[in-house]
């Protein structure tokens, strides 16, 4: 079994986490507006939407050999540390105050009880989302791996893509398209198996079937998906769906797959680079970055930093602060429990 890491994939993971951090900083929303709409911020937000799909695709690709050879055993080893990280960081985020001003004025419990009450309004969704919104990725990944492992165990992997495709279509129709379709869903469809399973399955199948593409073919697919995603977002915006609120659309899966195939077509990209070597910190950076962003938002509020300066301060603080926190914790026994 090939165990050597693919340099371009490792680099892609780092680029993806940086894109996610930048998106969560909510930049360019208070300025550079056109007709009082922050289109620059909206477009920037949607331009980062390749990142999470890329994570799912890479995960399915990397685990494929082991999941085929020993489905249940591999699944147990795979989801056990992920589940622990999800629980630990949910507890941290539930305990962490988000608004220091409210804490100073009304106390810790007053600040936290509002958020806890909000989460309890949708208890089932909260189970799939955790203590803070970004943690949804972990249960979604676990769901995708579990579905794939179960089908592998039953010898029904031929059903993986059809099942995953059905979940994805329903997720889109009951998600961003819900205003048009009025489809019901038990949870917010970004969470759980709806989107993660197809992307995971595509990565899994690409490796299983040894599917390859040239850089030109992959780039064409990515650009097609990108164009579809933005076209859908524009059309949905005319039906009162906020332009920047689209996590996954029909074009998103093509966009992400094209990006992934492009990385596979350039396996030596980033080889030996410092940036690619930081890929081992991607999960720690993912789970820790949003709490750090919240801290930076409070800091800029205290010092009354606004506009572009605020955005750059939050972004720099989030990237540098999260990286330094992870590196510091790496030297302690806490690292294993916090970050797998």
List the helices and strands and how they pair.
Blueprint: H1 7-24, H2 39-47, H3 51-69, H4 71-95, H5 100-106, H6 108-120, H7 123-129, H8 137-154, H9 160-173, H10 178-181, H11 193-208, H12 215-237, H13 250-265, H14 274-277, H15 282-302, H16 307-330, H17 334-339
Helix pairs in contact: 1-3, 1-15, 3-4, 3-8, 3-11, 3-13, 4-8, 5-6, 8-11, 9-11, 11-13, 12-13, 15-16
Report on this model:
- It is globular and about 60 Å long.
- The protein has helices spanning 7-24, 39-47, 51-69, 71-95, 100-106, 108-120, 123-129, 137-154, 160-173, 178-181, 193-208, 215-237, 250-265, 274-277, 282-302, 307-330, 334-339.
- It is mostly helical and 340 residues long.
- It has one domain.
- The relative contact order is 0.15.
- It has 17 helices and no strands.
- The mean pLDDT is 97.
């Amino acid at each position: 079994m090939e165990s050597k890491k693919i340099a371009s994939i490792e680099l892609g993971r780092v680029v993806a986490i940086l894109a996610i951090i930048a998106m969560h900083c909510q930049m360019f929303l208070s300025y550079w507006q056109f007709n009082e709409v922050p289109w620059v911020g909206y477009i920037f937000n949607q331009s980062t939407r390749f990142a999470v799909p890329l994570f799912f695709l890479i995960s399915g690709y990397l685990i494929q050999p082991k999941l085929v050879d020993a489905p249940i055993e591999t699944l147990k080893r795979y989801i056990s540390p992920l589940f622990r990280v999800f629980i630990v960081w949910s507890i941290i985020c539930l305990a962490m105050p988000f608004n220091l001003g409210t804490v100073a004025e009304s106390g810790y419990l007053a600040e936290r009880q509002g958020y806890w009450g909000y989460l309890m309004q949708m208890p089932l969704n909260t189970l799939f989302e955790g203590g803070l919104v970004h943690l949804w990725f972990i249960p979604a990944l676990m769901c995708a791996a579990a579905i794939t492992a179960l089908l592998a165990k039953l010898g029904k992997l031929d059903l993986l893509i059809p099942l995953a495709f059905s979940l994805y279509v329903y997720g889109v129709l009951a998600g961003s398209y819900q205003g048009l379709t009025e489809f019901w869903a038990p949870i917010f469809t970004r969470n759980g198996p709806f989107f993660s399973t197809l992307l995971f399955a595509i990565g899994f199948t690409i490796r299983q079937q040894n599917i390859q593409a040239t850089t030109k073919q992959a780039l064409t697919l990515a650009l097609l998906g990108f164009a579809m995603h933005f076209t859908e977002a524009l059309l949905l915006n005319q039906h009162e769906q906020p332009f920047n609120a689209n996590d996954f659309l029909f074009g998103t899966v093509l966009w992400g797959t094209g990006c992934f195939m492009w990385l596979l077509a350039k396996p030596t990209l980033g080889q030996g680079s410092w940036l690619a070597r930081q890929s081992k910190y991607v999960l720690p950076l993912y789970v820790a970055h949003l709490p750090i962003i919240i801290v930076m938002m409070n800091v800029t509020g205290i010092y009354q930093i606004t506009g572009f300066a605020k955005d750059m301060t939050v972004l720099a603080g989030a990237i540098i602060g999260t990286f330094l926190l992870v590196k510091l914790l790496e030297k302690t026994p806490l690292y294993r429990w916090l970050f797998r």
